[in-house]
Amino acid sequence: MAGHSHFSPANVEEHFEFSSEGKKRIIYAFIAGLAALLLGIYLLSKGESGGHEVANAGHEAVKAGHEAAAEHVSGGAVSHQASAEEHYDWTNRIWANVWLNAVFFTGIAVVGMFFVSLQYLTKSGWSSVMKRVPEAFPKFLYITLPILIAVFIFKGDVIFHWMHHGVTEVGSENYDKIIAGKSGYLNKSFFLIRLVVFGGLWILLWKMLRKKSLEEDLNGGTEYFNQLVKIGTAFIVIFGASSSIFAWDWVMSIDTHWFSTMFGWYMFASWHVTTYAVIVLTILYLKDKGLMSYVNENHLHDLGKFMFAFSIFWTYVWFEQFLLIYYANLPEETIYFIERWEGHNKIYKTSEILMVLLNFFFPFLVLMTRDAKRTRLFLKIAAFMIIVGHYIDFYQMIMPGVVGKHGGYGLVEFGMVTVFASAFIYIISDELTKASLVAKNHPFLPEALHHDI
Amino acid sequence: MSSTTNYILGVYDDEDEVLHAVTAVKAKGIKVEDVYSPFPIHGLDVAVGHARTRLPIAAFMFGTLGLICALSLISYTMVFDWPINIGGKDFFALPNWIPVTFEGTVLFTAFGLVTTFCISNDLWPGNKAVPLDIRTTDDKFVMAINVDKNKVSAADIKKALKDSGAVEVNVK
């Protein structure tokens, strides 16, 4: 259409420069996060956690009666709480935070690959202008997957109830019949096999996709596109299974007695919408630097729609999981929500409410109008809040089962997320410099440049 | 359209031509009333300068109305008029009501929007369409210019239409 930029893809390459000043800034953020983390660890070892727990201590006596009532209702879960208490050590909270961040950022990294694959599978045109951004994300899997493997091998019994000593041995004082019944799936070697095989496949397919995508830049021709469609399709099939499996493995099995058939979807929905928010923030950052001028408000509008739609999708899945459990009212299922609502001296209740506000009501109302989805400031605010909200969502999934009443928001939490986030930004910025920001020989690029909605 | 209105119609053969013609004619300071086409043309509404539809605002209002109606009905029946003990839950069991409330919101939005759309476009049942040129339902594209709303003389309008590639210029 007339009036659009006369950007000609054939002779333009755009490169993001990761300046030394930018590098310095991220390294400073990393160091600040590390310092906060170390200070937090020091305070933890002294038995404090940055004030949060202290404030709650006074209420403890009042809440004790409540919790006793909740546990009375929940039957089978009492043994879980008790055994978690026996194993508690102040370092557990550090490992819980490592696990939380590794899972959260693995999601952002792998959904970048999922997004690109999905665009190839559906042969979508509009996204070809910005596909280099999500295409860079899976690089961070090189950091998070080894962390997951290492934490699992060395500190798995901190995170997972089913790895506690003797839970599957008949006659042991820790013997737990329910967990023993699940040990055909939940055992150390099978868990590791799943993690290594699927994680390896993710990285392998990403490397293949990235290689073809960069070769397409050099040579052009539609045969690359057809090959990329095949790689994308293969990844979607693998990811369809592995995202659910990892949701059970990495997060649901923390509360080993509890189960939900919606959990795979629920965790995927959370990962998915977070990644859209990260994509939007990355593109807007690049646009503020004067790059990616060919990504116009129509593309941003589409990304805004994705954030809006998948926020509602997350709400649907989260609420549906809650509603079924609330309605059926089975003690072994309701324990999950009772634990988060009134268990552990109610320290998780505020986060639970905040999470629903940030993940549903905020994006729903802020991103509802067309103008908001086309305005950079609104997109930035909404994307940032979605990331915060879904971080809290993962916090709520992982923390109550691992640290219970020893949880809270202290320097350890803020330090750890700063460390991971700055590492993520550093690695992704570095990966973005390695290719032209526009996939100049993508066959659908002309269509995307004329995208108009 | 009342018969007293004074229209000049430019008839075009091609959707691309009419799209460019709109821009060309408007560049001469002529106000274009509307363009009639057998099918939607991308970017035409922007070129003609129509204001964006306000249907989304209506959608939000109908949705809110549906939400309020659904919640009012359920809470009246389940809490005030005829409370029933279901599994020992509170009478005001909000989570249970969400699916029905959602359906009520969607239902009100859908019916409200279809009705609003039909009314605002004069599309009620039995209403007869009065096309300015019957061929716009087949293969012709017509640009309509209201002479009374323009300061440009009729002769100049006709000339502008011809220049922009109209195959016919009619007066109606």
Would you give an account of this structure?
The complex is a heterodimer of chains A (453) and B (172). With 453 residues, chain A is mostly helical. Chain A has one domain (15-53, 64-444). Helices cover 71% and strands 0% of the residues of chain A. Chain A has helices at residues 20-45, 52-57, 60-73, 77-87, 92-121, 132-136, 141-159, 177-181, 188-219, 222-251, 263-288, 297-328, 331-341, 349-366, 370-373, 376-402, 411-432, 445-449. In chain A, helix 5 packs across helix 11 (263-288). The longest helix of chain A is centred in the middle third of the chain and has 32 residues, at 188-219. Chain B has two domains: 7-51 and 131-171, Alpha-Beta Plaits, CATH 3.30.70; 55-120, no CATH class. In chain B, strands 2-3-1-4 form a four-stranded antiparallel sheet. Chain B is rod-shaped, with a radius of gyration of 25 Å. Chain A binds chain B through residues 1-2, 319, 322-323, 326-327, 329, 368-370, 452, and chain B through 23, 42-43, 52, 56, 60, 87, 89, 95-96, 98-99.
What best-fitting shape of chain A do the alpha-carbon axes yield? globular
Radius of gyration of chain B: 25 Å
Counting DSSP E segments of at least 2 residues, the number of strands of chain B comes to: 4
Record the strand order, biggest sheet of chain B.
2-3-1-4
**Low-confidence regions of chain B:** none
Mean pLDDT of chain A: 88
Unreliable residue stretches of chain A: 1-5, 49-83
Query: Roughly what percent helix of chain A?
Result: over 70%
- Percent range of helical residues of chain B: 40-55%
